[in-house]
Amino acid sequence: MKNVYNYLINELKLQDKDIIVIGCSGGPDSMALMYILQQIRKKIDIKIICAHINHNVRIESKEEEKFLEKYCLEHDIIFEAMTIEKYGDDNFHNEARRIRYHFYEELINKYQANYLMTAHHGDDLIETILMRIARGSTLKGYAGFEQKTEYNNYTLVRPLIYVTKEEISNFDKENAIPYVIDKSNFKDKYTRNRYRKEVLPFLKKEDPLIHEKFERFSKTLLEYNDYVNEVLKKVISKVYKNYEVDIPLLLEYEELIQKKVISYILEEIYPDDLNQINTNHLLLIMKLIKSKKANGRIDLPSGFKAVKTYNKLKIVKGTDSIFNYEIEIIEKVDLPLGHSITIVDEEESNNNNVCRLLSSEVNLPLYVRTRHLGDKMLLKKINGTKKVKDIFIDSKVPVSLRDSWPIVIDSQNNILWIPGIKKSKFSKQKSEKYDIILKYN
């Protein structure tokens, strides 16, 4: 484990007053890392914060938390813990990971820490790479994980990436380091455990230093990924603006570049959780981009959707659960997507963000609601009705926004105005008689 010490002291260059949050389960790997940091603390004045997550899925979890709290108290280490009370419907491991890293970042901000350290080791790297090769990933994803990743206000470090699980176990024995064992690590129902029990022993039998080969493989892929990303920046600046892809511009480039642009965007959205994304997602997005259909969408992990609207592609957080509403307009209405409708006394503009009405021609009170199936609006110019659906299509309103777009009606359900898009026959010009002015912001 000398190379771990050397890395922390000579390469990472830990120094006095550094503050380190360490993700610690109490298991043999994280306790070994904790011990190493304690040894370094004897020479350098660093502060150690132990961050423990009780995943609340095993009866032993509470005892493990008590064990770790007692250890930290005895060794002058700040102990912080949280218990995950409830999980949603998402993949257990992905959800637990998101909660875990959110907790870590809370502690980083609380203590103004400059490092977050985790106990991922060389065997973990092999497992991660093999799993991603099997299920498909991006170039960066195939590299597994990095030893050091810079964020805005801290650095994530995995110091044990150089060493194997066996070396850590021997180190724990030699130094009488206490730890607890998570029995779920031996259950075959988890994919990683099957790789750990079946594949790794075979690889290590073929080459006891296989972890070093995988580490070099990972570094090589990351170097290529960084180089390609530098080249890609020029393309990205042209085809990806305001979080939207200009599809016709993107399709002018080779398919390799097209795929790399989409991979780049996915890596932005899932920066530390590429396990959620596989090759199939990339291929589906490429198919969507090349489709002749004007609109379409693809569901992605964690509630994201790739949405195509005419010549644009955007990856957004899903909005399926939002927004059936009907609200009476009294002075001002704040709408769910951050807009508002206000009754004003004066307004110079006459665009589609302003609607003037004569109260004697409509049925008060006025309401704003989301669209209903079969909605139609009376228009002046055609002296008849037009479907709201067709108005949205003509105005190129993204499919993802149509169900939540505000529609102003009177108490008899006459559609008076689609804010920002279209006015009805009830809307008045500035030169006409009116006594109500509505403004959309």
Describe the structure.
This protein is an alpha+beta fold and about 450 residues long. The protein is about 40% helix and about 20% strand. The protein has 3 domains: about 1-120 and about 160-205, Rossmann fold, CATH 3.40.50; about 215-315, Uridine Diphospho-n-acetylenolpyruvylglucosamine Reductase, domain 3; about 325-440, Phenylalanyl-trna Synthetase, Chain B, domain 3 (Phenylalanyl-tRNA Synthetase, Chain B, domain 3, 3-Layer(bba) Sandwich), CATH 3.50.40.10. It has 14 helices and 22 strands. The strands form 5 sheets. It has a 6-stranded mixed beta sheet, with helices on both faces. Strands 7-8-11-10-9 form a 5-stranded antiparallel beta sheet. A 5-stranded antiparallel beta sheet has the order 12-16-19-20-21, with no helix packed on it. α2 (about 30-40) crosses α7, α5 (about 120-135) packs across α8 (about 190-205) and α5 crosses α9.
Q: C-alpha Rg, in Å? A: 29 Å
Unreliable stretches: none
3D shape: elongated
Strand content: 15-25%
Q: Structural class given helices, strands, pairing?
A: alpha+beta
Helix content: 25-40%
End-to-end Cα distance? 61 Å
For the record, the count of structural domains works out to 3
Indicate the CATH class of the largest domain. Answer: Alpha Beta
CATH topology description of the largest domain: Rossmann fold
Main beta sheet strand tally, sense and closure: 6 strands, mixed
